[in-house]
Design brief:
By secondary structure, the chain is of the alpha/beta class. The protein has 11 helices and 10 strands.
Length: 248
């Protein structure tokens, strides 16, 4: 079974995370495939990229059953930095990007969504930056990206609280751009009329935003954030929290 499914539909590139048994959590294979897609599709003909998940889950973040073996700061940093690079490529992808959150999106799942230009969800979605409950911070650069997308107080509220939001709450705070009953209604009610037909126009506008992020050293800020997470990852508090989680 493919861990990531790529489809081209009606001028859009759909990237579907497909590890339903673990709520589409990210492992090394998924990281590699996502990075490959973001590189090879930069100059594709599609007008926008949409990332979503399979079977009523968007993404449960990093797969702790894989990553719990990482004990030291150096080991953690290697993994975190790799996915951080993937998300910077998603953030600066030269066309519009959309996260359609079709279910749970917690931890790194919210970081993936934050890297996208737009975020939509189904009403029953639950989402939040829950990393604080595991005694770490966002490990893939999510806080730096979130502060580019939301006002300071709203972004920090999501990060400091580590709470899970309903779709309605996330829309009210500004994290979501809208809520739709289904993927089908999202396509018919928003997506089909959201973008002009000329992909080169979309790319030109996206470059304006990318230049802003480059000028503000977003990549460097994300790397500094990732290093701070790696330090916390090595701590006893994190290892104890992960052990408790894995016993559930």
């Amino acid at each position: 079974m493919k861990k990531v499914i790529v489809q081209r539909k009606n001028g859009f590139l759909w990237v579907r995370l497909n590890r339903p048994a673990c709520r589409n959590a990210i492992d090394y294979d998924v990281m590699h495939v996502l990075e490959e897609i973001l590189e090879t599709e930069r100059n594709g003909e599609e007008r926008a990229l949409i990332i979503t998940g399979s079977e009523s889950s968007f993404c449960a973040g990093g797969d702790l059953r894989v990553f719990h073996a990482l004990k030291t700061e150096a080991q953690a940093y290697e993994m975190l930095a790799k996915m951080g690079r993937v998300l910077y490529k998603l953030m600066t992808f030269p066309k519009p990007t959309i996260a359609f959150i079709n279910g749970i999106a917690i931890g790194g799942g919210c970081e993936i969504a934050t890297a996208c230009d737009y975020r939509f969800a189904v009403p029953e979605a639950k989402l939040g930056f829950v990393q604080g409950d595991l005694a770490i911070t966002t490990g893939w650069g999510g806080a730096s990206m979130l502060l580019e997308k939301l006002p300071y107080d709203k972004a920090m509220q999501m990060l400091w609280s580590a709470r899970r939001y309903t779709a309605k709450e996330a829309e009210t705070i500004g994290f979501l751009n809208g809520v739709f009953q289904s993927e089908s209604s999202f396509c018919t009610e928003w997506l089909q009329d959201a973008f002009v037909q000329h992909a080169e126009v979309l790319t030109a506008y996206k470059r304006v935003a990318i230049r802003k992020w480059q000028a503000s050293n977003l990549a460097e800020r994300m790397q500094q954030e990732i290093r701070e997470c790696a330090v916390l990852w090595e701590g006893e508090s994190h290892h104890c929290a992960v052990a408790t989680f894995l016993k559930k």
